[in-house]
């Protein structure tokens, strides 16, 4: 369902996910990193799933972008294991905890990247898009131009995040069109990344319904194929595994000028 729709009924649901990353057709190193963490606590035959998913696109070319993105996902994983999943398994996790955890974890992760780039004496940084899914409730957080899309079971594809980039600001100001943004000479200028001082993520919670799918991806996917193609492939795929395979293949067939990473998560009726 759309992020602004009213909360649905609460049927018993499970999470089904798949992920794939590819170096693309022109790069020598894959600087993307992914994180998929899932747990399902079942009691009285009722599943209660929690999932944490993230895509980090390392930036900096020869300046260790893959180190930055790897540090991002490993730090998030450690924070999830020591706090979020512990609270969940203890039965004490509430929505305010998720929001506070996201903000704190992103701040810790950002500081880790800052510290590492200072030690290395380079300008490595990374984008980040991540979601925490608890049952039918999802919290989306992002920094940079990696994206989350929502494909409702009944409805059209919706972009949940908007890029922290120069061309996105120009589009929002109606100075250029989305089509012009795709070919703009400064389309890779990002003004908010993990590794900057005092970075502020955008966080958005909303409800999901069974059959809804979420797509997390870097610009190696959404920069190569149109949103309409992302929607068609994701909708027609029989499973998240088929969706990620066909999405990566489509980006490569379109030129694969960057690393390509995608995670698809589906809410499934138990």
Would you kindly provide a written description of the structure presented here, covering whatever features stand out?
The chain is of the alpha+beta class and 270 residues long. The protein has one domain: PPM-type phosphatase domain (Phosphatase 2c, domain 1, 4-Layer Sandwich). It has seven helices and eleven strands. A hairpin with a 2-residue loop joins β5 and β6. α1 packs antiparallel against α2 and α6 packs antiparallel against α7. The radius of gyration is 18 Å and the shape is globular. The model has no long low-confidence stretch (mean pLDDT 92).
Summarize the model shown:
This protein is α+β, with helices and mostly antiparallel strands and 270 residues long. 34% of the residues lie in helices and 27% in strands. The strands form 2 sheets. Strands 2, 3, 4, 5, 6 and 9 form a 6-stranded antiparallel β-sheet that branches.
Task: Reconstruct the topology from this structure.
Blueprint lengths: L12 E10 L9 E9 L8 E11 L5 H26 L4 H26 L4 E2 L1 E7 L2 E7 L3 E5 L6 E2 L6 H7 L5 H5 L19 E6 L5 E5 L1 H4 L4 H10 L3 H14 L6 E10 L1
Antiparallel strand pairs: 1-11, 2-3, 3-4, 3-5, 5-6, 6-9, 7-8, 7-10, 10-11
Helix pairs in contact: 1-2, 6-7
């Amino acid at each position: 369902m759309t992020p602004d729709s009213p909360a649905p009924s609460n049927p018993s649901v499970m999470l089904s996910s798949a992920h794939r990353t590819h170096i693309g057709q022109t790069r020598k190193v894959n600087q993307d990193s992914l994180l998929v963490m899932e747990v399902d606590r079942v009691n009285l035959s009722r599943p209660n799933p929690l999932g944490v998913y993230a895509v980090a696109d390392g930036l900096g070319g020869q300046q260790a972008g893959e180190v930055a993105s790897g540090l991002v996902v490993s730090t998030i994983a450690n924070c999830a294991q020591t706090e979020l999943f512990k609270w969940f398994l203890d039965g004490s996790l509430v929505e305010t905890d998720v929001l506070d955890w996201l903000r704190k974890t992103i701040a810790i992760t950002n500081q880790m990247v800052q510290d590492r780039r200072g030690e290395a004496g380079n300008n490595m940084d990374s984008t980040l898009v991540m979601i925490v899914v608890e049952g039918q409730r999802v919290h989306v957080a992002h920094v940079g131009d990696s994206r989350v899309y929502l494909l409702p079971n009944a409805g059209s594809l919706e972009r949940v995040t908007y890029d922290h980039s120069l061309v996105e600001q120009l589009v929002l100001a109606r100075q250029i069109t989305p089509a012009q943004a795709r070919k703009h000479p400064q389309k890779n200028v990002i003004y908010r990344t993990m590794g900057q001082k005092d970075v502020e993520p955008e966080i958005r919670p909303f409800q999901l319904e069974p059959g809804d799918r979420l797509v997390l991806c870097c610009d190696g996917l959404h920069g190569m194929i149109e949103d309409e193609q992302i929607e068609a492939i994701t909708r027609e795929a029989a499973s998240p595994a088929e969706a990620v395979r066909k999405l990566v293949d489509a980006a490569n067939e379109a030129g694969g000028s960057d690393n390509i990473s995608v995670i698809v998560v589906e809410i499934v009726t138990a």
